[in-house]
Write the structure tokens for this entry.
Amino acid sequence: MPRVAVLGTGYLGATHAVAMAQLGMEVVGVDTDPHKVEMLSAGKVPFYEPGLPELLTEMLATGRLRFTTDVAEAVGWADVHFVCVGTPQSKTSHAADLRYVEAATAAIAKHLTHDGLIVGKSTVPVGTGAQLRALVAAQVPDGVRAELVWNPEFLREGKAVQDTLHPDRIVLGGTTGPSEALLRRVYAAPIAEGSPVVVCDLPTAELVKVSANAFLATKISFINAIASVCEAAGADVTVLADALGHDVRIGRQFLDAGLGFGGGCLPKDIRALMFRANELGAGRASALLQQVDEINMGQRERVVDLAIAACGGSVLNRRVGVLGAAFKPHTDDVRDSPALNVAAALHLRGAQVTVYDPQAGDTARSSFPTLAYATSVEEAVEGADVVLVLTEWDEFLRADPTHLAALTANAHVIDARGKLDAAAWRQAGWTFTGLGRAAVVA
Ligand code: UDX
């Protein structure tokens, strides 16, 4: 089995390192942050990801998995080097900031002591791989051969372990015969299970990833655009989405109307694609994604407006109970979280906002320390003039509306994720507002 180095131990890299060990390889995870390395070495995952802590502990115990800050040692030891570092949105434009990918790739190339395969997994703008090949050629020591290929990752937060061990597809971009064979050995188990392998050139592999995210984002903005038609026409978008979903060409997934998409991937990836498409002269793709982004950001404003309307035209000194801070359930990630965005916008308008999230309280507090944080649903809704359900955690869907109604000052709920049982909440005395649903169900 090849020895594997994984550079970057965030959501992607930590999960990938643990999964590669689970697939039977010897693995070293590398990060420049000593705190992360220390935590992971001690069996602690620095973020919330279901199933990962258990698998990490199991893999550390096998002796196949370790973590280090020593990139030279790790690269000198391994045969396959995965680049799993972040590509955040640049601070001054929609472009992706490639400094970490470039630094990690250059570090690998520089420290190679024998022939190696560098495998990019990070989400990058199309054309990056070709530039990185030039960087590798300039850095690699004499007498050592290095090949750079792209193998994008499609994992979802909250399902990262499952997605990595059982991928929907394995895309191998820019490989030669020997490097394709090597990666087929790395992924032998999922391939044997039936994961399809797509072998393609470097730019196609880079584009598959961003196009997948752009399509998912488009699907969400499509249903949110239709939701506004439903509202105006007195139709119910949740029923409509179910009916659409029965068509196998459409499918039901990613048709949940509501507050829209956020997180560390979809928003930045569509913006980076918009930027790159423009650079390449593909103006129509860019214009389409601009609309997708605008519809998405408009959903946040819409929920803010609904909350203001629920408080009679102003939220100044009104109490707003916010259920949910994470950008989606089963994660503590609040990067570009629509929920926190709405909570913060209401706070800026003078509302007293109390937020409760089952997992993301701490991460939310460090990003938005000025909001108040509760430790239970009850505490968040106590005395509230309006309650907003902004992330669809099971705990909120299971909550007893009768019990909660009694705690509020004014039992008005805005279900911004379309998952509450509207009839049950109305029956319990709540004024119920849903996105894309008529004010009162006929
Ligand atoms: C996404 C892609 O799914 C994954 O393949 C890629 O590798 C990384 O980006 P992730 O960011 O973990 O994964 O979240 P995802 O489950 O895709 O959800 C993205 C956002 O869309 C969330 O904010 C979610 O609440 C929202 N969403 C999703 C909707 O608003 N409606 C839906 O129907 C589905």
User: Anything to note?
Assistant: The chain has two domains: 4-200, 213-434.
